Amino acid sequence: MLESAAVTPLSGDFLGELTQARLLAIIRSTDPEAATQAALVLCESGIRFLEVSLVTTEALRVIAEVARRAPHGCLIGAGTVLTRDDVARAHEAGARFMVTPAVTESVAESVARGIPVLAGALTPTEVVAARNLGATAVKLFPAANGGPAYLRALRDPLPDVPFVPVGGVDAGRAAEYLAAGAVAVGVGSPLVGDAARGGDLEELRERAAEFLSVAQASRAPR
Asked: Catalytic pick from 3, 17, 65, 139?
């Protein structure tokens, strides 16, 4: 059995903290060592919310290691969480929030365990279903299908739903989604690049600084 990691506890309201951070980094990789190093660099760069997808090779080990070594204030979650068993195993490894690609059984399981969950949804019906199950926020995925205009259209009838667009979100799009009312954006390859496969970590730090600047600007008074 994988040993549970010593993890940074939740302080205060998860959604409130995510809304303040405005940014969720997403790691997917076939190289667990490189994935761990990239995740730690992101946390050290100031990114507070980081998701390790369960499609990552040895994902549970990566989650446990990053959760153990990440600086205080960086919260590690699991992504591509599909089943009840996924929730149990990821939480045991050290994940403190769950992210799903769709409205799956893992949403209700996360809610039952009191674990914050970002439930994947695209259509209005899926969005409402996710919220009815108790999802903390809705991961609008794949966001690139409709872009910021689609987010605005969804928010017209559903203004109280906290949306986190994911999929094809580069720095420019991140600013547009945040301006359109997203509480945060989830960013994978435009931020991580090849770092989770052994790429340049200094370049990763530079990209992290760019996205953090976008997040900071979105918090500025208008």
From this structure: 139
Answering whether pTM is above 0.90, one says: yes
pLDDT (tens digit per residue) in 206-222? 999 999 999 999 985 54
Return the CATH architecture of domain 14-216: Alpha-Beta Barrel (3.20)
Q: CA 108, CA 34: separation in Å to the nearest integer?
A: 32
Count Cα atoms within 13 angstroms, Cβ side, for 122. Answer: 11
> CA 177, CA 58: separation in Å to the nearest integer?
32
Q: Is 44 a known active-site residue?
A: no
Question: For this structure, is 51 an active site residue?
Answer: yes
pLDDT tens column, 45-59: 999 999 999 999 999
Domain boundaries of the chain, sorted by first residue: 14-216
User: Catalytic residue among 51, 65, 109, 176, which?
Assistant: 51
SS3 for 122?
coil
Q: Which amino acid is at 132?
A: N
How does pLDDT run across 25-45, given as a tens digit for each residue? 999 999 999 999 999 999 999
Q: DSSP states of 144-193 as a string?
A: GGTHHHHHHHHHTT-TT--EEEBSS--HHHHHHHHHTT-S-EEESHHHHT
Residues 38-75 as b/e (b if ≥16 CB within 10 A, e otherwise) read bbbbbbebbbbbbbbbbebebbbbbbbbbbeebeeebb
Q: Which helix (H) or strand (E) holds 84?
A: helix 84-93
